Amino acid sequence: MFRDTMNDNNSNTDYHNDDNDNSNKLIIGLDEAGRGPVLGPMVIALVKISGQDLKSIENLSVKDSKKHSKNRREELFKIITNNYDVRYEILEAKTIDKLRDTINLNKIEIMAFTKLINSVLKEEYPNYKDSNKIQKINTKIEIYIDACSSNEKAFANQIKSKLIVNDENNIKIIAEHKADENYKIVSAASIIAKVIRDREIEKYKNIYGEIGSGYTSDKITINYLKNYVAERGELPEIARMSWKTSKKLLNDIKTKNNVDKIKNSKHIKKNVELKQTKLVEF
Q1: Tens of pLDDT along 75-96?
Q2: pTM of the model
Q3: What CATH class is the domain 5-203?
Q4: Quick one: average pLDDT of 253-280?
Q5: Sequence-distant (≥ 6) Cβ neighbours of residue 145 within 8 angstroms
Q6: What's the 3-state SS for 45-107?
Q7: What's residue 197's pLDDT?
Q8: What is the fold, at CATH topology level, of the domain defined by 209-265?
Q9: What pLDDT does 14 receive?
Q10: 9 pLDDT exceeds 60?
């Protein structure tokens, strides 16, 4: 798989090809959108192409989804979905919260990544359940992932350990930071994940009103949550309850309510004492 050559001096460098024959090769790219937001889902996307499609994906002007305008992302989304095999997983906020009771966010991503990869491997290794049969295919599979862990090698090993087949001769995992900038197959997956998440956010807006982007850096999102909690005393179901921002908002409203109760209690006590004083004077 060729790197994005935008920042490379040698545009013909092929970092992971062992030979020049791409006819028996599958190339897979994976990325996520919505890892950090306090509102909304995280989307994991996979794009699969054959070796024959390698040149077409390289010629497609894709880059990390954040570097494209919304309209351009939508255009590329149509091109990618119409020409290549696209798969995705949507993890809603409540699903993420439930999973975080037992595992961290990195492992949640790894779980979703491997689920999508295994959906491809099941097709390539039809006998994967039969331990008596040798799991052997003629296809070389290269899997490119935008690594969410600080340890790229450990991340790749965790992915490998969860695959339904162990075929190191034919399956190669390339997990790197900024893979969405360096490999166009990952850029394509980045675009799919981003567009799907944006569409999910738009669906939420039809139900909940203006919620912003869902990110904690978005003042619209934070103000929406503050107002929601102030009015209802709880967070909307599209919020990630396990996020620090959510916990702080709930704690703040709880503290405020406790302060208000104390103030009301003092006010009632003062009124009672005042009435008693008037009765004594009478």
Answers
A1: 999 999 999 999 999 999 999 9
A2: 0.83
A3: alpha beta
A4: 54
A5: 29, 30, 31, 113, 155, 156, 159, 173, 174, 175, 176, 179, 186
A6: EEEEEEHHHHHHHHHCCCCCHHHCCHHHHHHHHHHHHHHCEEEEEEECHHHHHHHCCCCCHHH
A7: 98
A8: Arc Repressor Mutant, subunit A (1.10.10)
A9: 45
A10: no
Amino acid at the residue 143: I
Using alpha carbons only, what angle is made at residue 117 by residues 111 and 123, rounded to the nearest 5 degrees? 135
With 0-12 CB in 10 A as exposed, 13-18 as middle and 19+ as buried, what is 250?
middle
How many CB atoms within 10 Å of residue 100?
16
User: Does residue 5 surpass a pLDDT of 80?
Assistant: no
Q: How do the domains of the chain map onto residue ranges? A: 5-203, 209-265
DSSP collapsed to 3 states, the chain:
CEECHHHCCCCCCECCCCCCCCCCEEEEEEEEECCCCCECCEEEEEEEEEHHHHHHHHHCCCCCHHHCCHHHHHHHHHHHHHHCEEEEEEECHHHHHHHCCCCCHHHHHHHHHHHHHHHHHHHHCCCCCCCCCCCCCCCEEEEEEECCCCCHHHHHHHHHHCCCCCCCCCEEEEEECCHHHHEHHHHHHHHHHHHHHHHHHHHHHHHHCCCCCCCCCCHHHHHHHHHHHHHHCCCCCCECCCCHHHHHHHHHHHHHHHHHHHHHHHHHHHHHHHHHHHHHHC
